[in-house]
Amino acid sequence: MKRSQIGPQYIHKHHLILKWLAFIFIIIILILSFSMYRKYQQTRLDVYPIRGVSVDQQDGYLDFVSLANTNQKFIYIRATQGSIYSDDDFNNNYQRCEGSNMLIGVYHIFSFDSNIHDQEVNFNREVSGNTGSMPIGIKVSNNGGNLNHSQLSNLLHFIQDIKQRYHRSVMVWTTQSIYTQITRRHVKCFLWLNGSSLKEGSKDATLIELQANESLQLDGQSQNVTQSAFNGNKTQWNRFIDQNVSQSNQD
User: What are the TM regions of this chain, as residue ranges (predicted)?
Assistant: First the structure.
């Protein structure tokens, strides 16, 4: 009895079917993974009902009224970085944001390579009287590490100078570990927890950076922004506003 021969055409067809099945399987896995990720992101967002965004010139033109209509309660606008750099869109963003009904904050990116006094001059010159109503933000990063003695002293000096000049509280956008270094020196400020540090815990945080590129629908178009949230419920948010938000700058 002759053994049947499997021709090359059949083998090629069989391999092609397997490739298509593998491709379809990968697509299904990707779709399920994306769906689970979006569900996780939404669940995480649902934990924090009070949300806001931070913006700079790289975000381009934003319709702040439309942004407020996506249930954003506050916005932080970058003003300066270091001793020289100022955000090209700061004044325009600030002026257009005033009619949005969002609480406005401004922030400075602190540089350990720049003179403290020069950074203060840069920030003061750029914001003038436009400091919003939220605590003034200071963004601090050190490649994930702690600050040495000199770095910490400079940062503390800057924080105290800003608090004294503007008679306002300060919101330090940083890691839990750097915030702990600050508070151990008995300097009072709020923690805006860096998104990369969420695994460290958030019990000390007032604001939490949730996602650096959250996609929001503004006037039918997708716009990526950095999304943050208040670490508490609506009652706690209202208490925070009453105690820490400048009433003179809310109108």
Answer: 20-37
pLDDT value for 223: 78
Higher pLDDT: 5 or 218? It is 218
**CB-hemisphere CA count at 13 Å for 124?**
13
Dihedral sign computed on CA atoms, order 184, 190, 196, 200: positive
Please say whether the dihedral angle defined by the alpha carbons of residues 104, 195, 214 and 44, taken in this order, is positive or negative.
Answer: negative
pLDDT 10s digits, 96-122: 999 899 999 999 999 999 999 999 999
Residue 246: predicted pLDDT: 74
**pTM score > 0.90 for this model?**
no
Q: How far apart are CA 168 and CA 190, in angstroms?
A: 11
CATH number of the 50-244 domain: 3.20.20.80
Q: Are the C-beta atoms of 86 and 128 separated by less than 8 Å?
A: no
Quick one: pLDDT at residue 1?
Answer: 47
Q: What's the pLDDT score for residue 5?
A: 55
d(CA 14, CA 216): 45
Cβ 138 vs Cβ 170: under 8 Å: yes
Sign of torsion, CA 131 133 136 141?
negative
